[in-house]
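Q: I'm building a small set of examples for a reading group on sequence design. Run inverse folding on the following structure and report the sequence directly after it, with nothing in between.
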């Protein structure tokens, strides 16, 4: 037997059923032993719920109480189902079915369709967008690409809530849901979409559940056959079930009660898709004899992180809040959460990137760090800041900002308007660069006021609004800037991000972070209007925003940083306020901390940026070294000159620096910008430093990169061949 056999990658299969229970805490053990009747496991974040339910199934199988083929475990993602199957195999319980609701239903539908209906199952429509587009066209409704996605999502919501086309307008009117278009129009498109599917003999993913439900309701013989096969059901993430999924589960069960559900109402963040915690909260009402076990021992996060998480929920209101779980950390104490107030958004991004760089230097792997924000449109400033800091990153659940469809389309439109110049009638009444950009982008969906509600239309607007703000900032920095200048700036920014995906810091929305965890988490942009988001109007919508922040907090194992900016851009009016959800929790905000206790240690740092952890004094103007004009753009400040001012650059040195940078990046397995950005190389080639002091004074170098690359760069500047591999003082001679 080799040592590898005992590693975490190849754990030994427990020798007996009792051995399966080894290592479980008392509550997890209680879950594992509760094999009869209905069981409800209320499991807080990080409490080992997957461990508890997989050991429960494995114990039942190994003890001979459950037959592997008679157990069906269902969850919501293929990743979660695969993880569950893997754990069950490691525990000696292979043969148990662990699937998503859709996967389990599709297998049953494929098997029973010939018997129930006859012939072959209709073809499954992988993507419904094209058919929805055709339905809209037949209804004489024009939808752009993003509206199409929103209407498609609305049809999906209607189907999982079992709302037929004719009832859709009335159901929306009775609910607090904001439809992306006129409900009557959507109802019409929905009806036409269903008709087109029937005409072409195709079904969609929601139909898989609907048709399975219909067959099990109408054909008792088929329902009995399924019930003879599956005697025991386990449902993970039960707070996320939709009414349609609950109906299917009821039909699978019949009049039996061999059901175990696991969930946490405080992590319900997908109500816009039809998910509801009501089934979890009503479980004891439906099953008065149920065994209820609460898992509150948090193995993921430190006491400091858990204290904040509990504090967030202590202020919650509504039915889900009445069933909140008070977590108890099982880890050693760690650092207090860091609260930082920045003057503006660029300073917040720069400060976050700097702290991330310090964590990596202290030994935290980049892949164990995440920056989480409310909407995807917030990613661009953090992409830029991390690139400038030489920190590799990867985006989860979103395209890179400059690769988004709407941003690419906007770039094409702006480039066309720049080429047309005065011949473009669209710009006739637009005076100044910002007005010109607003005029061009208004043809792509930008409006002075944001659209109501969330979804793809709102995401598109946020991306276009970010470009409008960029144009405004650019014009303030260069009063005579033209559209051509702005297009060149956009190209420069996009080029700096065209790098292969690498193992790096994760950038993700809070929704995309659900189910994941990192050693260090940075929650950014925590201001009113963003958290809670402006379109959260009702009490329940605001409470879901609070739960979203709770999910973000509980993603952190050790390091947690929360930050906000008082204004959008440098020099702007400091009119923003930190999120109400931190009132009484962050130091200096008054009130009580979690569990009614006083706020623990820590403080709010008021920062405006800086280098090496040293807070800057007042952020005074940066002047062009050629003409003396005030510089505000990061790229110009790196060069210490206006983009269009005359300069003297050693072209040969610049090319040698680029070649050297490519070699370093290849050896590190990172994109080139993580060594130095193009702007930093240009600044070096213009100023040709001869000493460490001159080199470190160039923006984008800093003490860390001076130590790592300084010797090589100075050698290149002196016309010499650099020695070593770029490791500088970090390498042994």
């Amino acid at each position: 037997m080799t040592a590898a056999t005992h590693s975490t990658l190849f754990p030994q299969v427990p020798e007996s059923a009792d051995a399966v229970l080894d290592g479980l805490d008392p509550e997890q053990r209680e879950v594992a032993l509760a094999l009869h009747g209905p069981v409800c496991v209320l499991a807080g974040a990080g409490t080992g719920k997957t461990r508890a339910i997989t050991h429960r199934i494995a114990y039942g199988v190994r003890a001979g109480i459950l037959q592997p083929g008679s157990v069906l475990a269902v969850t919501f993602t293929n990743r979660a189902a695969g993880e569950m199957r893997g754990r069950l195999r490691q525990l000696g319980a292979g043969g148990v079915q662990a699937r998503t609701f859709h996967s389990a239903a599709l297998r049953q539908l494929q098997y029973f369709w010939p018997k129930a209906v006859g012939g072959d199952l209709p073809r499954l429509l992988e993507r419904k967008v094209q058919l929805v587009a055709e339905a809209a066209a037949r209804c004489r409704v024009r939808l752009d690409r993003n509206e199409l996605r929103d209407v498609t999502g609305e049809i999906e919501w209607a189907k999982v809530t079992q709302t037929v086309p004719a009832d859709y307008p009335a159901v929306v009117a009775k609910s607090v849901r904001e439809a992306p278009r006129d409900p009557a129009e959507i109802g019409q498109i929905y009806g036409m979409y269903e008709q087109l599917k029937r005409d072409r003999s195709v079904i969609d993913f929601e139909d898989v559940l609907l048709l399975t439900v219909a067959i099990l309701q109408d054909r008792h013989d088929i329902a009995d056959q399924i019930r003879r096969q599956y005697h025991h059901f386990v449902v993970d993430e039960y707070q996320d079930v939709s009414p349609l999924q609950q109906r299917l589960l009821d039909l699978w069960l019949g009049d039996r009660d061999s059901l175990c559900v696991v969930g946490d109402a405080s992590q319900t963040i997908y109500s816009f898709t039809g998910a509801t915690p009501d089934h979890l909260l009503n479980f004891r009402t439906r099953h008065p004899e149920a065994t209820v076990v609460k898992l509150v021992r948090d193995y993921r996060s430190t006491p400091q992180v858990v204290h904040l998480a509990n504090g967030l929920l202590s202020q919650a209101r509504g039915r889900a809040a009445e069933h909140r779980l008070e977590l108890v950390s099982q880890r050693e104490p760690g650092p207090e959460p860091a609260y930082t107030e920045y003057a503006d958004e660029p300073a917040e991004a720069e400060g976050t990137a700097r702290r991330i760089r310090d964590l990596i230097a202290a030994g935290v792997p980049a892949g164990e760090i995440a920056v989480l924000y409310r909407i995807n449109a917030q990613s661009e400033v953090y992409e830029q800041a991390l690139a400038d800091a030489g920190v590799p990153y990867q985006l989860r659940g979103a395209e890179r900002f400059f690769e988004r469809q709407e941003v690419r389309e906007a770039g094409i439109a702006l480039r066309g308007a720049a080429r047309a110049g005065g011949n473009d009638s669209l710009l006739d009444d637009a005076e100044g660069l910002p007005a010109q950009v607003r005029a061009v982008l208004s043809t792509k969906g930008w409006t002075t006021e944001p659209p109501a509600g969330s979804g793809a239309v709102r995401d598109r607007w946020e991306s276009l609004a970010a470009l409008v703000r960029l144009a405004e900032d650019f014009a303030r920095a260069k009063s005579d800037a033209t559209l051509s200048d702005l297009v060149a700036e956009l190209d420069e920014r996009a080029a700096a991000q065209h790098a292969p995906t690498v193992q790096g810091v994760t950038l993700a929305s809070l929704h995309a972070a659900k189910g994941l965890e990192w050693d260090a988490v940075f929650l950014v942009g925590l201001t009113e209007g963003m958290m809670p988001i402006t379109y959260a109007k009702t009490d329940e919508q605001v409470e879901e925003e609070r739960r979203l922040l709770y999910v973000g907090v509980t993603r952190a194992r050790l390091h947690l940083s929360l930050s906000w900016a008082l204004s959008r851009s440098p020099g702007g009016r400091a009119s923003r306020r930190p999120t109400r959800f931190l009132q009484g929790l962050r130091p200096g905000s008054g009130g009580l901390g979690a569990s009614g206790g006083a706020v623990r240690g820590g403080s709010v740092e008021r920062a405006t940026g800086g280098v090496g952890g040293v807070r800057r004094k007042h952020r005074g103007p940066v002047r062009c070294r050629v003409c003396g004009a005030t510089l505000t753009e990061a790229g110009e400040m790196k060069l210490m000159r206006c983009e269009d001012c005359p300069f003297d650059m050693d072209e040969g040195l610049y090319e040698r620096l680029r070649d050297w940078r490519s070699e370093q990046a290849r050896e590190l397995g990172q994109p080139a910008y993580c060594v130095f950005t193009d702007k930093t190389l240009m600044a070096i080639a213009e100023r040709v430093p001869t000493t460490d002091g001159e080199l470190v004074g160039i923006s984008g170098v800093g003490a860390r990169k001076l130590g790592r690359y300084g010797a090589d760069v100075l050698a290149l500047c002196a016309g010499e061949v650099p020695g070593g591999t770029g490791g500088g003082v970090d390498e042994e001679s």
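Residues 231 and 452 are 47 Å apart (CA to CA).
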